[in-house]
Each structure stands twice: as C-alpha cells, then as structure tokens.
Amino acid sequence: MPSGDALVLIDDSGRVVEWGHPAEELFGWSAEEAVGRSVATLMSEAAAGDERQREKSSETASVLVKAVLQGTSVMWQVLPAGNTVSGQDVAILKAMFAHSPLVLHVLDNQLRVVRMSSAADGLSNAPVLGKHFTEAYELADPEAEAAVAQGVLESGEPVVNRLVRHVEAPGRATRRIHSVSYFRLEDSHDRVLGLVTSAVDVTERENAQNRLALLDAVRRRVGHRLNVGIVCQELVEAVVPAFADIAYVEVIEDVIRGNEPPPVPVRRDVPLRRTAFQGRIAGHPVEVVRPLPDGTPFSDVLSDLRPRLVSIEEDSSWLAADPARAEVIRQSGSHSLIVAPLVLRGHALGVVSFYRHQQDPFEEEDVAVASAVCAHAALCIDNARQYMREWIVAQTVQRRLLPQPTATHTTVEVSQLHLPAPEGGGAWFDAIALPGARTALVVGDVAGHGIAAAITLGLLRTAIHTLAALDLQPDELLARLSDTAGRLAAGYAELPMDPLDREPLTLGCAVALYDPVELTCTIARAGLPEPVVALPDGTSADLSVPPGPPLAGTGNAPFPATTVSLREGSTLAMGTGALADEVLAPSGPLRPILDGAGTRPLPNLCDDIADALPDGSRTGETLMLLARTKALPKDRVLNLSLPAGPEAAPIARAAARHQLEAWGVDAETAYTTELIVSELVGNAVRYGTPPLQLRLIFDQMLTCEVSDNSTSAPQVKHARTIDETGRGLFIIASLADQWGTRSRTQGKTVWAEQPTGVSTEHRNDAGRPA
C-alpha cells in the first residue's frame, strides 16, 4: 500500500491502480474517475486543462517515482518531491543497505520482504523478495518469530537483541545464531507500513559464552563430594546436554581403590572401570571393568595424553577394534566424538568420552574446552582418591578396634547398630566382662573423622579397658578417662601440623554397669544422649541420668551416676548424638520401634531402626548399643552373712565347700577356692568393719567376694621369712587369675576370680553345672 502522501500508484501496464487524496487536489479528478485509466492519458488531459489546473501542477512539478512490491507484482509509486528525504539521507540509506555488515530487511505490513541489504545475500540460496520472512529463511522456530514480529507490528514496541537460531544450512558445519531487532515502520501520518529488522551474526560470541558457562558450571558442580564415583557422575551431569549429548567416564581401577595412578604410557592390560554415564542409549552397560582395546582413540589417549577430535564414520577402522563400543555408538547415532584424558602431574587417571548426535559436530575450539573440563575433573578425582585411601585406612583401623566379634555374655545379650559416616568417624562401643558376672556397657564418640579420629578412638578404648580392670564405678571411670583425654588433647596441640591443632578435641562417652545378681544398672554419661530402657511389656522409659560435660572439657564438673533397677528382659539403648532426635528422644519419630521391642530379637530391632532412618538426616556417625538383661539364676549365687570373730573363717570354708560340691567343681579348684575364701575372710575379720558378707558367684568364672563396711583398701605385702602374718593377699594374688577391690556405698568388696573347674560335659545346654 502506498503511504498517505503518495499521489498515484501505477501498475506495470501504466494503468492507475490507486489515486491518492493529494492527486485529487492536484489534478482535480476523483479516485473513481482516475483509477483504471492510463496514466499517459490523464497526464495529457492535465496538460491541456485550464490555467488553474496548470498552476496546481506547477506547484508540485517535482515528483519521485519508486518501485514497490505488491503481492508478487512490481508497482510504481509517485511521490511529491517535497515528501522525500534529503540527498544526505538517501546516501546514508544507500550505504547502509549496500555496504554495512549489518543485515537489514524491510518488511511490509504482511511481514513480506520488500527490501534487504547486501549483507543478507548469503542467508538464503533462494530468492526472498515477496516471501514471508519465515518462509524466506530456515528458522529453528518460525512460529515463535512470526508471533514476535506480529506483536511489534501491532503494538509498536520494538524488540531488541533477540537471539534467533537458524536450521543448519547445507554446506555449513554449525547452525547460525543471529541477534535480531524488530522496529515498526510508520509514515508521517502514523500509519503502519511494516517493519525494519536488523540482524547480527553472533554465533561465535554465543559459542564462546556457552563454553565459558560450561567451564563455570563444571567448577561449581564437580568436586564437592570426596568420592571418585560421585565426582565422575557430577562431571557427566554437568556436560550433558550443555556440551555433549552423551558422556561417560572410565577411570583406572587402581585409582578408584585409592592407589597411585600408573605412569604414562599406560600399559595395555591396565583395567579401567566405567564409573559414570549420562545420555540416552538403550541397554547401555554400566560398571564395566576392562582394558581398552588397542588401535582406538581411547587407548591412544592413554599413551600420549593428547585429546582427540574424532569424526565417526561407518567405515572407521577403530570401530572394528572395539565391537562393544561400536554397537553403542551405532545405537546412539553419534557423528562426532572428543576423547580427552584425565591427567594430573603427568599421571593418567582415566578417559572421558564426549559424543554428539543431536547437536552440531564438535569443532577444534571444543577440544580445548573438553581438556579444561577434564583438567578440573582430574584434580577433583585425585583429591577424592587420596581421601578415599585415607578413608579406607581409617575404616580398617576402626573396624579392627571395635569388638570382632562381640563377646558372648551369659547375663546380657548385646547387639549393635553401626552406620559409618561417609567420611569415616570415631564412634565405638564395648561390652566388657567384669568380676561377679557384671558387664560394663560403653558407647563413645570422637568428633571428627579420618585416621586421626580412628587413632584417638583406639587410645580411648584401650584406656577404658585399663580403667575397667580397676573395677571403678562409672562416674569415677569417666573422670579418669576425661583426664586421659585431656592429656591426649594437650599432646595434639603440641603438633603444629596435626589437623586437631585447629579444632578442639571433643569426646563423648556413656558407661553403664549392669549387675545380674542385684538386677541394677549404674549409668554415667559425658556429652551423649540420655539412655532409654525398653521394658518386656512393650513400653519404654527414659532413664534420668544427669548429663556430664564432654570428656577433656575445661573445668572440674563431675560426672554424676545414677543407679536404676532393671528387671530381667529389659533392653537398654545407648547411642551417639546422631540418634538423639530420631530414636532416643521421647517425641522422636522412631521411638515407637523401641517401645515395641519387647522380646523381639535384638538384631531384627537394629535392622528396623536402620531401615527407618531417613537418608541425609544424620550429621555424624550413627552407633547404637542394645543390651537385653538376664538375671543370674539364684542357684548360682551363694550369699552368707558372717560373724565378726575368728569363727567366721571356718564357717565360710564349710559353706563354700558345700556349695562347690553342689556346682560340681573339681577337687583342686575347690581346695584353692577354700583357701582364697579363708584368706579373704581372715583379712576382713582382722582389718575390716562389721557386718561381713561372703558371696560366691558361679558363672563363666568362679568369683569369691567378701564385703565389709571399712573403706580402707588392702595392699599386698611381701612378708619376711620369720613373719607369721602378712601373706594373705600375696597368697590370693598367686592362686587367683585376678583379684581386686571395689568401693560400695558403704564399705568395700574384695574379690578374687578363677576358672570354674567344671568340664564341658558336666554343663547343661544353658551353661550351668549339671
């Protein structure tokens, strides 16, 4: 359509197609009179007209005639010269359309191309004038572009720097990308004529930005977890589909195991493990371990550590050398491949393969990008490898330090739930048999991870066993253990390169001492959650054990102990802080599992708790010790009150002799036991304070205990040849396997232990004397 200032629009035969209002005023003919007539006839009549017509004609004698496109026909538009642009403007427009590298198009109000700059000649191999612009060029999304252009045509709001992708043209290696701007074209009366579009080829700029964005994404997403497999999976997820359609990583098997990578060139028989894969290939095998076949780009990369850009052709000779991989490539339809090494400090860690089957083929610039990606991944994999080696050592040390297997106790059944932290930890447990059929149950936790935590665990566990042999009460044991831990912390602080120098040594421990004769449990805790007891009737209760400070802490705060009664069949649950909120807290979501413990097997109970723990909820190593109590049968305990005089020893010997006969103890053990009883009772009469009490306990060991109300501890004396006394404890120490003293609420107990002296055939299935 001509503009509102146009005089006449003439077709290629010279006939008037449109007659504008200015022409009506100039020539005097209406549009009805002029349209369809020959312009030559009209001009002749105008020239022969009256003076008034000639004057009007002379006023606008200078006109501009230009060709315009209407549909598929060329029309001639006559414009008054006064409405044309200046000569300078014409020169500028001519230079822009002829010489500017900017691609310019003029579209009419039907979005058809009516003019274009010389820079647009190479965008299409076919004529474009007169075509809708989405038909003239192969656009990746023509509907979206048509909608954008129509919106600018209707609203007048320009769209600037819109990225438009083209379909890959024949003979071009990549799809082109243009930054396109749309502006509405209007005449002086604000009537819409069409659009002016400008386009700049930004393919290289966008590709460079995409490469930088890829490298940034790889640095942000890869290497946060110190696990070789996870690092490799993070890598393929970061590059697909941003860089490749398919990617997978093959790592040398020794590297995955934490060993040193082999030197280059890598031997042909060195196996690699496919550790990560991303892409869509049906039936793709994972976790394949095999050497790389000779004569392929993958084995060549491990020989010279040089990345390769490979074009995949049907007749590529290296495909025949690796039929399994060739089949995968055939299924994917890949046409381009980059093979890059995972290399660090001249040592090969593995190979990464990048495939494309939907995107444009790789270019030489992409090889540098793949190398940079693999360089970062190799550093992360090596960090994970070194950490994994330390983790394996730490886990091995920790496993060796924990009870293997758990000792069998006749008066308590023990089971443990141990879920190691991904980075390793320092949690431990123990069930230590004590004299008198008692058992010390211990749970501890060293803050931190790795070899340092495992070594600290071993030192503390050794210290606990040593302190437990002294027959200390739980509060006294924790106090002395805290002193030991304090000395450890001070020693670590003197090592400037030790990791623990930069963070305090934080330790937690809980000790429970179970007595199957009195059916009591004495508990003290330092920095660990409050224990829970599950009763045989299916209910549970918190044990009100006052909290003590963490071990090796500052100050002299005590570790208060609490003694509670536990009837037979009760299950004591002690755990690290990771289980406090989930299981041990009264409102914990897994507390009902303990409530329903009843008489269920403890291993099944541990499995139920482990299965119910939510993934990712634990902040440290998870360890729980479950101990189900058993009472020592009454017929395996002798309790006897003794007088305070010399007659106490004969009475004690006679009672012991009778009980030992009932238990089936052999004569030699019985004679030794009578001698031990006599010496213990004699010392109590001579040095102790009434009342006196004798107790014999027949369990895995035969224990003799004599109690009195005196707090003075006996000491072994080495009597001279002429001395008539002072040999009592020396004799006991010589005859018994071990002996000792423990404090009571009032007074003390001196005990001695020795083997039972009953052969296996004289015991029944329950381990009791027949």
Describe it.
There is one protein chain. The chain is of the alpha+beta class and 770 residues long. The chain has 22 helices and 31 strands. It has a six-stranded antiparallel sheet with strand order 12-11-10-15-14-13, sandwiched between helices. Strands 17, 18, 19, 20, 23 and 24 form a six-stranded mixed sheet that branches. Strands 6-5-9-8-7 form a five-stranded antiparallel sheet, sandwiched between helices.
Q: Name the quaternary structure.
A: single chain
Total beta-strand segments: 31
Helix content: 25-40%
User: Could you give a short account of the major beta sheet?
Assistant: 6 strands, antiparallel
- How many helices? The count is 22
Low-confidence stretches: 50-61, 497-501, 719-726
Strand content: 25-35%
Structural class: alpha+beta
Report mean pLDDT, rounded to a whole number.
Answer: 81
Strand order of the largest sheet: 12-11-10-15-14-13
- Please compute the radius of gyration using only Cα atoms: 48 Å
Termini separation (Å)? 120 Å
